[in-house]
């Protein structure tokens, strides 16, 4: 039986989504240096010309992939906070806990982020997306911290401290999951919250 085109009867949005997913896989596996038009097209099972058609080039595709990965992380955090209900402490703990559980605590996602981080200094569009992403995440965290009694004057410092704590645990969890018992990383982060918040009261 003859092989069928990978995107037969797919609409443009589906094609773009498939190319973004392929780009994320290549970045995770090969790093930024390996994310060429040829490699991504091969991963997606399409002709290289489709990348140019839908994104104009590989740099724009990588930027779109960065934005998509960031959106998926944000959606996972938003779902966790919404599911926690109205209690402020439960909402903040849900945010922190979700950051240290799948799908966010994932070795392939870490590999993808490392590829993105390697491009921050080299590509202005990735640097801009990085700054915007960090600003959005910190704004969401600051809102949760205010609900938990953090004072506005210390809000930025507390948010940075909580972010650094969670990022450090996330990095170690993705790199060496055997370091932690099940749920231990999230428990460490949750147990540290009162002390961090109290510095702003």
Order of helices and strands: HHHHHHHHH
Using the coordinates shown, work out and report the CATH topology: Tetracycline Repressor, domain 2
Q: Tally the helices: what do you get? A: 9
Do you know the CATH architecture? Orthogonal Bundle
Query: In CATH, what is the class?
Result: Mainly Alpha
Distance between the termini: 70 Å
Kindly report the name of the CATH homologous superfamily: Tetracycline Repressor, domain 2
Number of domains: 1
Mean pLDDT: 92
Strand percentage: under 5%
What does this protein structure show overall?
Helices cover 74% and strands 0% of the residues. By secondary structure, the chain is mainly α. It has one domain (12-198): Tetracycline Repressor, domain 2 (Orthogonal Bundle), CATH 1.10.357.
Concise description?
The chain is 74% helix and 0% strand. The radius of gyration is 19 Å and the shape is elongated. With 201 residues, it is an all-alpha fold.
Task: Outline the secondary-structure elements.
Layout: H1 12-30, H2 37-44, H3 49-55, H4 58-83, H5 88-99, H6 107-120, H7 124-147, H8 152-175, H9 184-198
Attribute tags:
Tetracycline Repressor, domain 2; 9 helices; 201 residues; mainly alpha
